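Summarise what follows for lecture notes:
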Amino acid sequence: MASEEINVPPMKDLNIDNITENTVIINSQSSDPRLTYVMERLVTHLHDFARETRLSTTEWMAALNFLVKVGQISTDVRHEYILLSDILGLSLLVDAIDHPKPPASTEGSVLGPFHTHEAETMKHGDLMSQDTEGEPCLVLCTIKDVNGNPIEGVKVDIWETDSTGHYDVQHADRDGPDGRCVMKSDKDGVFWFKAIVPVPYPIPHDGPVGQLLKLLKRHPWRPAHMHFMFEKPGWDHLITALYIRGDPYETSDAVFGVKQSLIVEFNPADAKTAQEYGVKEGSKVLRHDFVLVDEKETERLRDENALKALKALGRKVKLLNHLPVPDLD
């Protein structure tokens, strides 16, 4: 924009006491009320953080250089900023705010940095993992609504590590996707596949996020799990994972993803299951019922939670496109 098109309020002699209000003023000329509100809150909290910690120039430069390194190590298959968001608990917080769950529905978990869009579409019963060193398992799932009705045609993304605790994209010599697939639920809401039993693994800790964990005396390990993502128009987008009961990192997940309702058990296949699904008797079987929520219910819950939470904070807001903005009426 040309300088004559911008109405800049007079600003000079800025200091600790007046810099925040002046920054908010100059950021408040946008025609987008949501952007104005988000920037006002961001600036206010950032400035308060600096004041409360008496942030030094040396510390602030160290933080900026840290963020530069986070960007430099990121690639199209390694998203270090997602890792940073994960280990700060922000990923789980944002998901919980944006995708509230009513009772009896499947809870969300973190996406993680290794989801890709190159997974092959497979038929029910296909083998997702080509890792011959992994322990074979059969996964039998249904997708239903909160009333127990099956949901047909849900796109399901599934991904897991190999038996060494690495995702396919972490192998430089890989020749295509493995340990991941896309399926669709049938008329009974069923999808099933063959894979390997998940194993615990450390998140990548050879970069700046790993260095931060070390400074905080935190470990980088995640408990054994399998990722799932569900998509269908009219239904709330669900990103979740299933975690194996009894894993040594069940209660100390480096990215805070474990929830009690998502902890599962693998049981041995009985003779009937083995014959029906073409697996060895006694091999591991995971059965799980996923419950999705329709978009309207999610919107209602998100609106209700937002107004309640902000009222408790003493903020007068209204909702615009289901997102809070200041209520200036």
